[in-house]
């Protein structure tokens, strides 16, 4: 992987690791526009100030936009979400593994 590719990955991960960033995008995954209030409710637990910040960052990054019906995912945002679409299945398998570890702790340190 080139240094340029690494820089792009680091830049994207820095954007997505901000608090609630992925959850904001995930709330728009069905492709239906959402008003600010509906988006806030969809994300859950996010303050208006934090949501405004995430919206600004995601819009500047070209991952979400705003139309007459509210905030929506862009083509680039939809592409990113498609690439993350395996996340729910992975998360379910991972959570099951974590539960097994708690129920059957390893005897090795």
UniProtKB/TrEMBL annotation:
GO molecular function, one term: DNA binding
All residue ranges annotated as the HTH hxlR-type domain in the record: 16-96
Matching SUPFAM superfamilies: Winged helix' DNA-binding domain
Keywords on record: DNA-binding, Transcription, Transcription regulation
Domain of life according to the entry: Bacteria
Keyword Metal-binding: no
PANTHER family noted in UniProt: HTH-TYPE TRANSCRIPTIONAL REGULATOR YODB (PTHR33204:SF37), TRANSCRIPTIONAL REGULATOR, MARR FAMILY (PTHR33204)
Protein known as: Transcriptional regulator
Organism listed in the record: Ramlibacter humi
Phylogenetic placement of the source organism: Bacteria, Pseudomonadati, Pseudomonadota, Betaproteobacteria, Burkholderiales
């Amino acid at each position: 992987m080139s240094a340029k590719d690494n820089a792009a990955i680091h830049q994207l991960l820095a954007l997505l690791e901000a608090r609630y960033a992925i959850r904001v995008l995930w709330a728009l995954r069905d492709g239906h526009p959402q008003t600010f209030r509906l988006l806030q409710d969809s994300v859950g637990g996010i303050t208006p100030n934090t949501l405004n910040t995430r919206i600004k960052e995601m819009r500047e990054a070209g991952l979400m936009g705003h139309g007459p019906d509210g905030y929506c995912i862009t083509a680039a945002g939809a592409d990113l979400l498609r690439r993350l679409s395996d996340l729910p299945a992975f998360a379910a398998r991972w959570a099951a593994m974590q539960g097994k570890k708690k129920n059957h702790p390893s005897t090795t340190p």
